[in-house]
Amino acid sequence: MAGPSKDDAFETWRRWRLDQGETVTIVELYELIARARGIRTEQLSLEERQALAARALEVMYPGFQLGPNSARADVEPIELVPYDSSWPSQFDSWRKRLLAALPKAPGRIDHVGSTSVDGLPAKPVIDMQISVEDLDDELNYLPAIEKLGVQFRSRDDESRYFRPFSGRRRDVHIHICATGSEWERRHLLFRDYLRADASARQTYLQTKQLAAARWSDDRLAYTDAKGATIRMLMTSAERWAALTGWTLR
Fold first, then answer.
1. Could you tell me the CATH number of the domain that includes residue 196?
2. What's the pLDDT tens digit per position in 12-36?
3. Burial of 23 (0-12, 13-18, 19+ CB in 10 A)
4. How many CA atoms lie within 13 A of 175 on its CB side?
5. Do residues 189 and 240 lie in contact, with contact meaning Cβ atoms separated by under 8 Å?
6. Residue 62: how many CB atoms within 10 A of its CB?
7. Burial of 95 (0-12, 13-18, 19+ CB in 10 A)
8. In the chain, pLDDT over 90 holds for what percent of residues?
9. In this structure, is residue 148 part of a structural domain?
């Protein structure tokens, strides 16, 4: 008897995701389809996984839309490298460029992600988080950022995302969020908790290494594979914030 069709498997996964939230990952969608064919998940072709991911993004991120000319992301292998002491200065250089380019100064510009945590191996990409008063006022930031050589890739209800144009070195990711939003807070809390707790850093590093080993050609699966550990660490981070009086500064 034939297994469920790809569309049936996607609909099953979509219902799971809507019912259970982010605990249901893109990897589980891959697994549904692979299991119906009697193959291992990793045997799904990259092309097929990309097509599935393109459909899944609209379920995973409410309001998700691709930017112009962003139909398919470049395939760039995920490589974790040792911490580079130049990463803070690279962030500062980008921060100055952004402040000079933006027509209105943002609420804040922060270095987030693994490159912002001293000693933590990471992909060599500087993650910038820019907090703005009105996320929907894209004319106030989108054209200015693209003039710096980064492309508007996508939007969703919580953020906007930019990265270097195809063919250029991927050295920076720029995320725009609303000032005072939960997006802003959770990324900064996670960063500060990792900076403060060596055990949390080690746990996160081990998860990153396992995810990169399995999904080196699939950035969405790599990110989703870290989700359970991130949620566990965020629970600890909230306790740490309450104990230490951590707030956005």
1. 3.30.460.10
2. 999 999 999 999 999 999 999 999 8
3. exposed
4. 20
5. no
6. 9
7. middle
8. 89
9. yes
Closest CA to 128 of 87, 156, 73, 166: 87
**How many Å apart are CA 127 and CA 89, to the nearest integer?**
13
Question: Residue type for 227, please?
Answer: G
Contact predicate 52/10, CB 8 Å: yes
Task: Report the DSSP beta bridge partners of residue 178.
Answer: 132
Q: Bridge partners of 122?
A: 81
Phi, psi dihedrals of residue 226, rounded to the nearest 5° = -90, -5
- Is 124 inside a domain boundary? yes
pLDDT band at 73 (very low <50, low <70, confident <90, very high): low
| 32-41, 113-122, 168-177 — most confident range | 113-122
Asked, for residue 52, whether it belongs to a domain, the answer is yes
How far apart CA 224 and CA 242 sit, in angstroms, is 27
* 73 assigned to some structural domain: no
Can you list the alpha helix ranges (DSSP code H) found in 102-196?
Answer: 142-146, 182-196
At 23, give phi and psi (nearest 5°). -70, -20
Q: Is the pLDDT of residue 158 over 90?
A: yes
Given a contact cutoff of 8 angstroms between Cβ atoms, the answer to whether 65 and 155 are in contact is yes
Enclosing domain of residue 33: 6-60
Q: Which residues pair with 81 in a beta bridge?
A: 122
Q: For residue 66, what is the DSSP state?
A: E
